[in-house]
Q: What sequence folds into this?
């Protein structure tokens, strides 16, 4: 690929790498929260609030981490979207201005990449409006912790 | 022991939210595939741009 295309790929991949890390972090935190929450509920069901209260610290801590991770994921999603849209504009313009069949074929590969990346983000269009576990447990933790 | 209906409803609310979050998790492996695909585009000598 030419220098301009390579530069777009680097930008898109940098943002996608941030989104991947955010996705991995969210999974880790959600799993940890789920375990802590289950422990707290098990204790509550067995012996009431006095037994579940000691788990509240862990639940709250994971919820706070989740809030930060959701914010990071939202930012990474938006940045990825901007980078992919910019690449899409570039590739579309180059495709229209290119006659050489080999160059056209090469641009086609980039267009396929852009199409797949756009489809991926479209599948997760709710990311920018997602609620964190910190917000979810507000008004709930008082009953158990 | 009597269960406080408000506490029970709040608990269900959290558990439903968690279930929903897990169902809508970003597919991390697909992002890794995209990154790999993007990297493969670099260095294609047929593209002059």
A:
């Amino acid at each position: 690929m030419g220098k301009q295309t390579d530069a777009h790929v680097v930008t898109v991949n940098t943002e996608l790498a941030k989104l991947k890390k955010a996705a991995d972090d969210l999974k880790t935190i959600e799993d940890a929260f789920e375990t802590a929450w289950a422990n707290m509920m098990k204790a509550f069901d067995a012996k009431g609030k006095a037994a579940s209260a000691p788990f509240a610290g862990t639940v709250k801590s994971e919820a706070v981490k989740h809030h930060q991770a959701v914010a990071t994921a939202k930012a990474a999603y938006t940045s990825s979207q901007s980078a992919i849209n910019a690449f899409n504009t570039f590739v579309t313009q180059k495709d229209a201005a290119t006659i050489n069949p080999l160059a056209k074929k090469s641009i086609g590969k980039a267009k396929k990449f852009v199409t797949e990346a756009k489809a991926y983000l479209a599948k997760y269009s709710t990311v920018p409006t997602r609620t964190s576990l910190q917000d979810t447990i507000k008004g709930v933790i008082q009953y158990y912790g | 022991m009597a269960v406080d209906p408000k506490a029970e409803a709040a608990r269900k609310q959290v558990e439903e939210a968690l279930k929903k979050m897990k169902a809508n998790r970003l597919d991390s492996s697909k992002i890794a595939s995209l990154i790999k695909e993007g990297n493969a585009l670099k260095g294609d000598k047929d593209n002059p741009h």
Notes: Chain A is about 80% helix and 0% strand. The first helix of chain A runs from residue 3 to 47.
